[in-house]
Structures are given as C-alpha cells and as structure tokens.
Amino acid sequence: MTAVGIDAIEIWTGKLTLNLPETFAPVKGEDPAKYTKGLGLETSSFPDVYEDIVTMGANAAKRLMDRRGLTPDDIGRIDVATESAFDNSKPVSTYIAGCLEQTYEGDFRHANKGERKFACVAGTQSIDDAYNWIKAGRNRGRAALVIATDTALYARGDPGEATQGAGAVAMLIDEEPSVVELSTEQGYGSMDETDFLKPNQQFPSVDGKRSMQVYLARMREALEDYESVAGRTKVEDFEYIPFHTPFPGMVRKAGLLGYRHMIRDTEKEDELADRIGRQPREADFDSWDDYEEAIRAYMDDLKETDEYREWYGRVIDPTLSLARRVGNWYTGSVHVARTSALKHAYETGKAMTGKQLLVGSYGSGAQAEIHAETVREGWRDEIEALNVDEQLAGRYDLDFEEYEQVHDAHNHEKDVELEEFTQPANEFVFTGWGRMNERKYEYVE
Ligand code: COA
C-alpha cells in the first residue's frame, strides 16, 4: 500500500512579539512566574499591520513551494483550516491561491479549494481530507496543500489574552512522503460542548477552566477509541507525543494523564507500586468523588517520580519549545508541536526514521483526535530547511503600548491607522479593501 502523509512543512510566524513575563505581566500586576512556570510561555507572536491569516498562510505556502520547486500544476487541492476567517462565504484558500498566482506561472483553476472549521482540530481534519482524497485515488498524481493559519487574539482583559499568538503552518500532503506517514487508525472523542466559541464575533467567548477539563476528557476518549482499533498504547512505543498546545501548561496535564493511562496494568505500574501504590480502580470505591480524590492523589505522586519526569523530559517537553516562543496558533498548534519534536531530534542527532509519534489534536466545541505517525527517511532534510529560528529572532519586540495599538489595529470593530513596525520584503502583504469589501494583497520584493 502506498504511504500517504506529510511530505513538507513550512512555518510562518507573525512579525511582532510580546514578552509575557517582562512586558505583559508587570502591567497586569501579575507574577512573571505565572507565565514562565504556570502557563509555560515566554513570548507570543503577533501580526504586523500588513499581516493577516492570508498573508501568513500564503507566505508559508510560497516558501514551501519554492523550496520544493513546485508549480500550481503540482497541487490538486488547497485546504485552509482557520478559526480567524473574515468571510462567511468566500474561503481563505481562494485568497491564498490568488496571492500565489501573482508569483507563479500557471494557476490553480484545477485545484479544489475549501475551508475547514472545527476550532483547533480543523488543521488535522484538513490533513485527513487530503489523505482520504489521495487514498481514494482522486488526486491524479497531484499533492494537497494544507494551510493552518490563525490570529489567536482575545478581547483585552480576557484571561485568554495571556495565551495569544499568530502564525501559519503549510504542509504538503502526498504519496511516499518525506516527513511522516499517517496511520490509517484514528481515535475520536467528540461531544457538543460550550467551552470556547465565536458566535459571529471576532474575539472568542471562553470558559477557560472548563475548556481545560473538556480538552482532557475528550483526549482520553480519543485515546481509548484509538486503542480500540490500534491496540493498547505503551509508553515505550512513541519517540514523541505532540499534543495540541494552547499553552504548554495544558500539555503538562495531558502528558500526565496519558502516562497514567499507558502504564496501567503494565510492569511499569508494578515497578512504581512500591513507592506510590497502584492506580486507584473505580470498582474499589463506593462513590465517584472518593475515586476522583484518590486519582488526584495518585497523579500528584506519579508526577514526582523519576520515571515519569524522565519520560516527560524526553517525549513531551521537546514538543513545546516553539509554543513557548509563539503562543497559541489554534489550528496550527499541534503541527507546531510536531515540528518542535522533529527539530529537537534533528538538533540532538537522534535517529528517527521508522520511529513512531502519537499525535493528539483538539478543537473546542469539542473534539479530540488521536493517530500515530511513522517518521520517514527524508525527515532530516525537511527539518534542516526550516528557518523558524531566524524568523523568531527577527521579530519586533513590542512594548505594552505598542501591543495595545497592534491589538486595536487588528480589531475588526475599530478603524485605526498605524504605521508598520517592520519592513516587508519578498512576501505577500495586505494592502486594503476592494469595492465589494474584499481584502486585497500584493507581493512586495
Ligand atoms: N508561579 C507558578 N505558577 C503559577 C503562578 C506563579 N506565580 N501563578 C499562577 N500559576 C499557575 C496556576 O497555578 C495555573 O496552573 P495550574 O492550572 O496547573 O494550577 C496556571 O499558572 C495558570 O494560572 P491561572 O490563574 O489558572 O490563569 P488564568 O485564570 O489567567 O487562566 C487560562 C488561564 C488558560 C484558563 C486562560 O489563559 C484561558 O482562558 N485561555 C484560553 C483558553 C484555553 O487556552 N483553553 C485551553 C483548552 S483549548
């Protein structure tokens, strides 16, 4: 059977950055450690005034196409995943295709274009759509371009303001991929939930604490559902486990839950039993509350064990290095986590070909999805070609007043004139509105 998966990845960060412990926390009267230790964040990315979901997505896609020597004729599908769309009818993929057509010979008239919506899980769903299209033999030898692009901005004063971010991840989905092959097996945990939504409004309504509980509950169901088709997962099976990362502190909780699940009824659980006891079993308790309390106590002990800490440091922590510096990219976030993991493997000289990743995606509203990926031989060249460190180092560091100005400039309800902070070069930029209120873009040399 032909392998299908991710053949190439490119990342495009917003050009501005906000330092959370040093610039944001002091103005909010908060301890910087809430950001660095609690949420696990150092800086977040923001779009300059000429950037938006289209420019970031098109710029990531152009880098990918140029690097791989692709033309529009090589692409049969452009799927954009976003929760930051500005149009309820015309999809962002048409704007991105329009941008790309300004700079390539040929066009994307033959390409099927769409836009996927299910909060942050939509990026992974777009990869699924591309995978299914290729597996069904409908691709006519062409690859799919999947672009996850978001400006994750919250209303000022909302607790979510701490976890903002902006950027795009472009991925080429193709046969015989260079980076990872996707497993056919998938698990889902999906339920009608009211944790985070944007009912025709730009900034989300969020029940932050509830969204964290829902993330964990749906992720657990997705893992059980995945195991029902792929068999039991074990901690030693996976080199890295990239999760959707709204902020690294969320993944700390998901990692602990996953570890507890994977070691249950294994030698590892027996090994730890001398020190922290065996995991509480529901059948041994008269009430759910007593059971939950016992689980909480067990988890508190588990996270202090050397075994857990070693596993977390090796398998989970490396997936968070980019998220710490960019914040939440919504649909792109789990794909940033996969990239961080492979980047870590590259930088530490790890052999990865044939190794497994377990990937946990999540979208509020709510749905979690879990699948496995097998790393392919070309992964190293793909990761080596990324310039994300240069992009991050080149960001303009906003002071608090500038941050508020940029936030206002991107607020659809406000009409703010603001000079750009950075100079665009060799990239697509937003230039204003057309006669039907469409957004206009240009490529600047
Ligand atoms: N030192 C160390 N840790 C600290 C700290 C300090 N001085 N101050 C706070 N913390 C810890 C808290 O204990 C908490 O960690 P815990 O959850 O492990 O207990 C963490 O930092 C965050 O602090 P908290 O007071 O809970 O933050 P908050 O009320 O401002 O809200 C969110 C945090 C995530 C709920 C909020 O940013 C949000 O709504 N984000 C958007 C929604 C989201 O991302 N949901 C996730 C699922 S998709």
UniProtKB/TrEMBL annotation:
Organism in which the protein naturally occurs: Salinirubrum litoreum
Ranges of residues in domain Hydroxymethylglutaryl-coenzyme A synthase N-terminal: 3-174
Any one biological process term the GO annotation gives: isoprenoid biosynthetic process
Occurrences of domain Hydroxymethylglutaryl-coenzyme A synthase C-terminal (ranges): 195-410
Stored InterPro entries: HMG-CoA_Synthase-like, HMG_CoA_synt_C_dom, HMG_CoA_synth_N, Thiolase-like
Gene it is expressed from: hmgB
EC number: 2.3.3.10
Keyword Metal-binding: no
Keywords: Acyltransferase, Isoprene biosynthesis, Transferase
Family: Belongs to the thiolase-like superfamily. HMG-CoA synthase family.
Keyword Acyltransferase (UniProt): yes
Protein name: Hydroxymethylglutaryl-CoA synthase
